[in-house]
């Protein structure tokens, strides 16, 4: 991926999708050292497996229906809903219906680059 740390504007059509897990792909929308925004698309039934990381994460359900589990608690979220994951908590999602999440991370996820 091209280093975009010095670019202010990103155009969705110019950004490539990257497969991550079966039925899941992501597109890095914008980033800097302290913040990263990533769009993640899920096919119906796709799973974002349970994991943890030291980054804080705020996510917006752009479309679809998701069962989101954070620290053992699961809730069903629909378009327009949000969730927040503190650092190091185990979390994951299941796409009940196909949809997209817009994830924000602080600091940025260097391993995504």
Write the layout of secondary structure elements.
Blueprint: E1 18-21, E2 24-32, E3 35-42, E4 47-51, E5 56-70, E6 73-78, E7 82-85, E8 91-106
Antiparallel strand pairs: 1-2, 2-3, 3-8, 4-8, 5-6, 5-7, 5-8
Folded structure, characterized:
By secondary structure, the protein is mainly β. The chain has a single domain (23-106), classed as Jelly Rolls, CATH 2.60.120.10. Helices cover 0% and strands 59% of the residues. The chain has no helices and 8 strands. Strands 1, 2, 3, 4, 5, 6, 7 and 8 form an 8-stranded antiparallel beta sheet that branches. A hairpin with a 2-residue loop joins strand 5 and strand 6 (73-78). Residues 39-97 form the Cupin type-2 domain. Pfam families: Cupin_2. InterPro entries: Bacilysin_H2HPP_isomerase (IPR052535), Cupin_2 (IPR013096), KdgF (IPR025499), RmlC-like_jellyroll (IPR014710), RmlC_Cupin_sf (IPR011051). This is Cupin type-2 domain-containing protein.
């Amino acid at each position: 991926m091209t280093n975009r740390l010095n670019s202010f504007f990103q155009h969705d059509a110019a950004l490539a999708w990257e497969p991550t897990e079966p039925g899941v792909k992501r597109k890095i929308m914008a980033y800097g050292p302290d913040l990263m925004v990533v769009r993640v698309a899920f096919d119906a039934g796709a799973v974002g497996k349970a994991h943890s990381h030291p980054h804080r994460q705020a996510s917006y359900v752009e479309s679809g229906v998701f069962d989101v589990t954070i620290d053992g608690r699961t809730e069903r979220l629909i378009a327009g809903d949000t969730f927040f994951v503190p650092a190091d908590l185990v979390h994951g999602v299941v796409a009940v219906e196909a949809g997209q999440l817009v994830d924000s991370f602080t600091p940025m996820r260097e391993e995504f680059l």
